[in-house]
Write a structure and sequence with these properties.
Elements (H helix, E strand, L loop, with lengths): L9 E3 L2 E3 L3 E3 L8 H9 L5 E2 L16 E4 L2 E4 L8 H10 L6 E5 L4 H12 L6 E5 L14 H11 L7 E5 L5 H11 L6 E4 L3 E4 L2 E2 L4 E2 L8 E4 L4 H14 L5 E5 L5 H10 L3 E4 L1 H6 L3 H16 L16
Parallel strand pairs: 3-16, 4-7, 7-8, 8-9, 9-10, 10-15, 15-16
Antiparallel strand pairs: 1-2, 5-6, 6-14, 11-14, 12-13
The chain binds flavin mononucleotide.
Length: about 325
């Protein structure tokens, strides 16, 4: 009997990925060691921790907490500064695509970071994080007018493939408006979604919150956010220009979850909370589970079912 080969490779608007599975920004991708582990793993790409112009300590600890179906964090963007990430990449010999995540604290800082990233040969694409829910500083993710002027300025000089990391939206109208805006620019991809903002988790034994910053309020990730993330992927797939790829992110735990994202229209997926919980070996497990799932479904590649979710009738 001839075994059909299952191909889980993909591409993000032409950027080839040997596997459609990668880490989410912020999950084990801040330090030299963490990034080296990701490069050595079976992930299809490496996404770096969102960086700023200068290194940042981030918020006071404890600032991350996880339970069986989720995580809550208010990290406050602890990172080693853009120069660290660019220098690290400069020294790295690798063929894996690198998505440099940028998260300036102002429009000016983001433009500075974008210009710097444009000079690096080692950066395959930029993932611009406009949606960090845990900062006191200005966040752009919900201000369409500011985003559009910002994108105008970016595309005056930008030559790198650019993607935008989006916050979750809960109204179709918001997704339509954001899509109409993004459709006007040569964006390569969007990543949906960042953590669900302003959640709270309670330790009932001690009648306390579990993280210290912002009185315990933080961004929520993990399995419990998956339905919202899938919905955002599906709606953006409906309204975005067809050449803008979607990277799905939120609550991925299994190969079946990856299948759901691709069925909704994602071209690739990112793993956050579950990577932090399980460690780097998760990429081997997910690859195996996803391949087996496709085999059972009799699909040989992700293109056979991408975006083909049917309505119940
Ligand atoms: C500890 C932690 C740090 C994060 N840091 C970033 C970050 O720096 N930049 C970013 O775009 N998203 C960041 N995120 C959000 C994740 O990339 C992801 O969008 C979110 O956690 C949902 O995915 P998940 O359910 O797989 O965790 C962070 C999430 C966690 C849990």
């Amino acid at each position: 009997m001839i075994m059909k080969k299952i191909d889980i490779s993909s591409h993000i608007n032409g950027i080839q990925l040997s596997s459609c599975i990668m880490n989410a920004s912020g999950a084990l991708c801040t330090t030299d060691q963490e990034l080296s582990n990701l490069f050595d793993s079976s992930s299809g790409a490496v996404v770096t921790k969102s960086c700023t112009k200068n290194p940042r300590e981030g918020n006071v600890k404890p600032r991350y907490f996880e339970w069986n179906v989720g995580s809550i964090n208010s990290m406050g963007l602890p990172n080693l500064g853009i120069d660290f990430y660019l220098n690290f990449l400069e020294k790295k010999k690798t063929k894996k695509p690198v998505f440099l995540s940028l998260s300036g604290l102002s429009i000016e800082e983001n433009l500075f970071l974008m210009k710097k990233a444009n000079f690096s040969q080692k950066v395959t694409a930029i993932e611009l994080n406009l949606s960090c829910p845990n900062l006191r500083e200005e966040v752009l993710g919900n201000d369409l007018y500011k985003i559009s002027t910002f994108l105008e300025s970016i595309f005056e000089f930008n030559k790198k493939p650019l993607g935008i990391k989006l916050p979750p939206y809960f109204k179709e109208e918001c997704i339509i408006n954001m899509s109409l805006l993004l459709n006007q620019y040569p964006i390569f991809f969007v990543t949906c979604i960042n953590s669900l903002p302003n959640g709270i988790f309670i330790d009932t034994d001690n009648e306390k919150t579990v993280i210290q910053p912002k009185n315990g309020f933080g961004g929520v990730g993990g399995s419990i956010i998956k339905p919202f993330a899938l919905a955002n992927v599906r709606k953006f797939y409906t309204y975005l220009r067809k050449d803008i790829s979607i990277i799905g992110c939120g609550g991925i735990y299994s190969g079946k979850d990856i299948f759901e994202y691709i069925l909704c229209g994602a071209s690739a997926v990112q793993i956050g909370t579950q990577l932090i919980k399980e460690g780097i070996s998760i990429f081997d497990r997910l690859k195996k589970e996803f391949t087996l799932f496709l085999k059972k479904k009799n699909y040989s590649s992700i293109n056979s079912f991408k975006g083909k979710l049917k309505n119940f009738q």
